[in-house]
């Protein structure tokens, strides 16, 4: 497998969740836009449902069978179904790492979407597609801090990851559990790369003394911050802006240096409706599909689609930190197991 080292990239780590199966049987004879498309995703269920509904509106006779689960659950499911694939496409996972490992397991297959045919492998310092087209990016994620605007003054806000160790946040901070959440394991892996493992584990020993909870869900700290159960937490940018748009008293901080992620989509290898899977990938990268993502405060991969988020790729790129994708792929299981042995 050919993987890039030292790029501005995305590290993801697998999150655990229960799969809500909507039923994945389909008639393979009903291919393409008019058939049933089994759509696996760990992203916000309401957003993926909206994507499916918009696709169906534009493709009469099509049915999008959205099946939600944590990324680890989805990957394990794809592995279990390898001899009899039931999914057609897989969208999202907090970055490129699960898709890179999926290539080695041969559960995804190359597809070059028309919209992305002229894409380079990297753009603006971020790897935006696989060298062999086994995945393509749909949007950009930023890892940072969500905070309660009623409880935290702007002058108190942390500027970087080390600032979370300030006594100001003791008992008022939350992050997800890295044994279950991709958001949190991304945090752990990126700090290990920046600090080295010995200093990195020391950092998390101190950070855990700050936390008042370590929920399994990646979105739970954001909800706790909105409720005032915590004053600050680790989150992706869109989580904060979605909540802010609903009237919650939250805002978001982009740390001085932080992971900037491209979130991919891929065609499932030997899925029952490959033409339908390809058509939905095309839709995700189309102006219409990108508008749905933009309406959910994601940063679209297309520069001609304006998002509701106040962030843009141009604004966040100066904050991007270099990440070693090879190291992340090779050490993911070991680091996650060490976390469990140290903190569970």
Describe the global form. Answer: globular
CATH architecture of the largest domain: 3-Layer(aba) Sandwich
Number of domains: 2
End-to-end span in angstroms? 34 Å
The helix/strand class is: alpha/beta
Strand proportion, as a percent range, falls in 15-25%
Summed over residues and divided by their number, the pLDDT gives a mean of 88
Report the radius of gyration as a whole number of Å.
Answer: 19 Å
The residue fraction in helices comes out at 25-40%
Organism: Desmospora activa DSM 45169
GO molecular function: thiamine binding; thiamine pyrophosphate binding
InterPro entries: Ferric-bd
Keywords: Signal
Description:
With 344 residues, this protein is an alpha/beta fold. It has two domains: 187 residues, 3-Layer(aba) Sandwich (D-Maltodextrin-Binding Protein, domain 2), CATH 3.40.190; 139 residues, Periplasmic binding protein-like II (D-Maltodextrin-Binding Protein, domain 2). 35% of the residues lie in helices and 18% in strands. It is built from eleven helices and 15 strands. The longest helix has 19 residues.
Descriptors:
11 helices; 15 strands; D-Maltodextrin-Binding Protein, domain 2; 2 domains; 344 residues; Iron(III) transport system substrate-binding protein; disordered N terminus
């Amino acid at each position: 497998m050919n993987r890039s080292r030292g790029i501005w990239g995305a590290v993801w780590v697998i999150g655990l969740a229960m799969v809500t199966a909507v039923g994945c049987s389909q008639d393979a004879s009903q291919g393409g836009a008019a058939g049933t498309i089994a759509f696996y995703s760990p992203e916000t269920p309401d957003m993926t449902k909206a994507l499916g509904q918009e696709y169906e509106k534009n493709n009469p006779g099509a049915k999008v069978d959205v099946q939600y689960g944590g990324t680890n659950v989805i990957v394990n499911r794809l592995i279990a179904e390898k001899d009899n694939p039931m999914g057609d496409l897989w969208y999202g996972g907090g970055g490129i790492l699960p898709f890179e490992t999926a290539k080695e397991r041969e559960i995804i297959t190359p597809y070059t979407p028309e919209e992305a045919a002229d894409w380079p492998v990297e753009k603006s310092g971020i790897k935006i597609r696989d060298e062999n087209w086994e995945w393509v990016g749909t949007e950009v994620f930023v890892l940072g801090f969500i905070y309660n605007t009623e409880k935290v003054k702007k002058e108190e806000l942390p500027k970087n990851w080390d600032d979370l160790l300030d006594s100001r946040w003791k008992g008022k901070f939350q992050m997800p559990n890295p044994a279950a959440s991709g958001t949190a394991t991304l945090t752990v892996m990126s700090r290990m790369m920046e600090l080295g493992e010995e200093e990195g584990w020391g950092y998390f020993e101190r950070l855990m003394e700050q936390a008042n909870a370590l929920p399994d869900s990646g979105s739970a700290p954001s909800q706790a911050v909105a409720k005032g159960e915590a004053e600050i937490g680790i989150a992706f940018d869109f989580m904060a802006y979605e909540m802010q748009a609903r009237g919650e008293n939250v805002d978001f901080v982009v740390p001085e240096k932080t992971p900037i992620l491209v979130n991919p989509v891929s065609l499932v290898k030997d899925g029952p409706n490959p033409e339908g899977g390809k058509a939905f990938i095309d839709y995700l990268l189309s102006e219409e599909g990108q508008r749905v993502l933009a309406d959910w405060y994601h940063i679209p991969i297309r520069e001609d689609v304006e998002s509701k988020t106040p962030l843009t790729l141009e604004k966040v790129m100066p904050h991007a930190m270099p990440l070693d994708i090879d190291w992340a792929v090779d050490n993911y299981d070991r680091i996650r197991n060490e976390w469990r042995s140290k903190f569970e």
